[in-house]
């Protein structure tokens, strides 16, 4: 099932996407609510949503403005250095335990919303990533059971301000500038994808310029391993988001010069059978004044 949380005429709803049309599940089924939390909490509601006939009560997908799949996730956990060639291009040693960091809610936004280059640095980079939406929470989840804890899969652009990422050994500053992490727009549930979302083409581009191209089978730590590893140190909760790292081809490693994202461009992240996360790049100075 392909799901989209979005707004039409000022009202945010959950939609089931069927080709170019979308069915409003929030209107059709009691308990769905205005983000994926309702479906995540109820297997019965998910089954009903899958079986619901579309009829004539659909809207064009293009008329829906995407919103975050989960409005306020408790945790946004991120894996780094998960593709060997990306590790090499960054000058790191291949680790035997994954690099991890967290993102704030303010650092992420829905697909289609502007991705903001901060006024303090021009070193805004792109990172195409697969992202998990946790369905069933837990602690000390075994790798054998981990896929049962995944509600669905989405697309993530882990926009990174490299100058600030490199200022300290901890990556937190460079990974948490406001509005630098784009999520969505679609969440696809596991039955419509290969087990663990393996074997999917993953790509980033600006126009016809291909920036990254790889396959999710090239990840060192797959979905099940990542869920198991992260649940060793924290209790995963329904609606948590986990990003799974980026393949080679990031801007800071381009030769002879780095390839930073520039205002006026639109960067697209695509994962096969999930969708395209597109973000226009804007300069922080060009944003409307707050207040």
TrEMBL record:
Q: Which GO terms describe its molecular function?
A: isomerase activity; metal ion binding
- The entry's keywords: Metal-binding
Positions of the Fumarylacetoacetase-like C-terminal domain: 75-281
Q: Which Pfam families match?
A: FAA_hydrolase
Q: Which GO terms describe its biological process?
A: carboxylic acid metabolic process
User: Which family is annotated?
Assistant: Belongs to the FAH family.
Q: What is this protein called?
A: 2-keto-4-pentenoate hydratase/2-oxohepta-3-ene-1,7-dioic acid hydratase (Catechol pathway)
């Amino acid at each position: 099932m392909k799901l989209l949380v979005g707004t039409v005429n000022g009202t945010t709803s959950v939609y089931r996407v069927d080709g170019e049309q979308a069915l409003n599940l929030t209107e059709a089924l009691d308990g769905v609510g205005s983000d994926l939390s309702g479906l995540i909490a109820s297997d019965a509601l998910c089954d009903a949503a899958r079986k619901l006939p579309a009829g004539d009560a659909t809207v064009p997908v293009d008329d829906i403005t995407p919103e975050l799949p989960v409005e306020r996730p408790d945790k946004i956990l991120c894996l780094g250095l998960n593709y060997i060639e990306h590790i090499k291009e960054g000058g790191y040693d291949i680790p035997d335990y994954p690099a991890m960091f967290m993102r704030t809610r303010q650092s992420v936004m829905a697909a289609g919303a502007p991705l903001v280059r901060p006024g303090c640095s021009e070193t805004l980079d792109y990172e195409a990533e697969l992202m998990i939406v946790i369905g069933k929470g837990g602690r000390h989840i075994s790798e054998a059971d981990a896929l049962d804890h995944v509600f669905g899969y989405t697309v993530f652009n882990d926009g990174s301000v490299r100058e600030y990422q490199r200022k300290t050994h901890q990556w937190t500053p460079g990974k948490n500038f406001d509005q630098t992490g784009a999520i969505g727009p679609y969440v696809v549930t596991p039955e419509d994808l290969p087990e663990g979302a393996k074997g999917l083409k993953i790509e980033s581009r600006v126009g016809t310029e291909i920036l990254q191209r790889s396959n999710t089978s090239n990840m060192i730590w797959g979905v099940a391993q990542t869920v198991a590893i992260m649940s060793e140190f924290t209790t995963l909760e329904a609606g948590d988001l986990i990003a799974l790292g980026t393949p080679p081809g990031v801007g800071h490693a381009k030769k002879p010069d780095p390839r930073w994202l520039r205002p006026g461009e639109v960067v697209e992240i695509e994962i096969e059978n999930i969708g395209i996360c597109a973000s226009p790049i804007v300069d922080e100075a060009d944003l409307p004044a707050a207040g």
